[in-house]
Amino acid sequence: MHSPTSTPAIPRTALLTGVGRRRGIGAAIARGLAADGFDLALNYFEPYDRRVLGEATDVELLADELREQGRRVELIPGDLEDPEFPPTLVASAYRALGPLGALVTCHCESVDSSILDTTVESFDRHYAVNVRATWLLLKAFAEQVEPGTDTPGGAVIALTSDHTVHNLPYGATKGALDRLVLAGTHELAERAVRTNVLNPGPIDTGWMTEEIRTAGAADTPGGELGGPDTVADLVRFLVSEQGSWIRGQLLYSNGGFATPAL
């Protein structure tokens, strides 16, 4: 076991999922990690961006931006609902960049629906994308490392949410994701893999109306909402040597946002 003060630096390579749009949280994390010297593999799935967000992906422009900073960037599109894709994604990132030091899961399936109108098809897709794919990604990431070897291992961070009411399958699967990822810190300790879950609170990436934005700011002590960069700042710390002793935690980085009473 490494002591907290002697934990070796992880490889400066990272796989990020759900990075389809330059104004999204995943893009902000990619920029932050690139600024810290990480080479990146970016996963995205344009049909989701078009179906749910009504936007086309512009991740190619993000990749060009990061390459201009001297970073290697590999774009790997694919649908995480397919159980064959997560291990393929990790393998592709490994081939392109070498051993991966960080995995940050920003992907999700998120369709507004409630107890009475959620379909079985939608419920199952939420579980496949938000839970099963995250498990398979975590598994493949950990399998890079031989247990018991003197290895720096890696850091895994998953984004989560409290939102459930009228967003039932999304919220239910985020709860399952939390338990799954946090278990990794204990189950994967011999591989030197550390895991955390990050709840950023409400972040406007283009989906908020003015009414939602105003209400969210009013429920935050500082009177303003965080942005994608506030999420990226914590991710950058958690994957750093200075943040390596924070493990197995569900962290709130939401400016003190108070979830309204149900």
UniProtKB/TrEMBL annotation:
Tree of life domain: Bacteria
EC number(s) given by UniProt: 1.1.1.100
Any Pfam family matching the protein: adh_short_C2
GO MF terms, alphabetically ordered: 3-oxoacyl-[acyl-carrier-protein] reductase (NADPH) activity
Record key words, sorted: Oxidoreductase
Record-linked InterPro entries: NAD(P)-bd_dom_sf (IPR036291), SDR_fam (IPR002347)
Similarity comment text for this entry: Belongs to the short-chain dehydrogenases/reductases (SDR) family.
The protein's name in its UniProt record: 3-oxoacyl-[acyl-carrier protein] reductase
Lineage: Bacteria, Bacillati, Actinomycetota, Actinomycetes, Micrococcales
